[in-house]
User: Which sequence fits this backbone?
């Protein structure tokens, strides 16, 4: 009887031990403000500055093209005045008329050129902006994963997203992620940014 009882107790102990070993631990959930990290990440700031330079260069080119168009319009007004000037000979007025007609054609081509340049510029800048954001968020994601592993986390939520209603401040790893990123910040990813001048 004692032997049977001892056997049952040992079996119960083994079952209890096995159950304790297989019972999963409580999940560790952390939060990070990805937006705040992106806005304060030195690589991302440098990338945005370079992107802004490309935007300013594009705007300058558009401004120059518009200035050329305005100069052409002013010249067209002067030619039109000469065409209507009855004090001039008919031959002179005919010559001014031809210059005016040629200039009108050039102005129409200029308008098309400006419209096409604007469209191409917007597409180029949009693509470049997406490449910048993707490249920097890839770095941020790797830094988040690193901190999550250090903290033994099973899940990390973006506190700046719509899915988080409440989070304990002690779970927030935003500061640690940002410190890790800026401590080992690499140079700006030029392959993602491209040149500052638009092609």
Assistant:
């Amino acid at each position: 009887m004692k032997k049977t009882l001892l056997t049952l107790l040992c079996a119960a102990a083994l079952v209890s031990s096995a159950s304790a070993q297989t019972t999963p631990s409580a999940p560790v959930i952390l939060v990070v403000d990805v937006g705040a990290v992106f806005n304060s990440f030195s690589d991302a700031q440098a990338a945005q500055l370079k992107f802004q330079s490309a935007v300013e260069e594009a705007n300058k080119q558009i401004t120059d093209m518009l200035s050329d168009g305005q100069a052409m319009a002013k010249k067209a007004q002067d030619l039109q005045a000469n065409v209507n000037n009855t004090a001039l000979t008919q031959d002179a007025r005919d010559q001014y008329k031809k210059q005016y007609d040629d200039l009108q054609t050039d102005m129409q081509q200029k308008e098309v050129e400006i419209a096409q340049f604007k469209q191409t510029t917007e597409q180029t800048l949009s693509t470049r902006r997406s490449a910048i954001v993707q490249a920097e968020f890839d770095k941020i994601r790797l830094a988040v994963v690193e901190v999550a592993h250090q903290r033994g986390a099973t899940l990390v939520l973006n506190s700046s997203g719509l899915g988080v209603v409440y989070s304990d401040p002690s779970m927030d790893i935003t500061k640690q992620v940002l410190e890790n990123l800026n401590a080992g910040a690499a140079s700006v990813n030029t392959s993602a940014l491209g040149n500052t001048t638009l092609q």
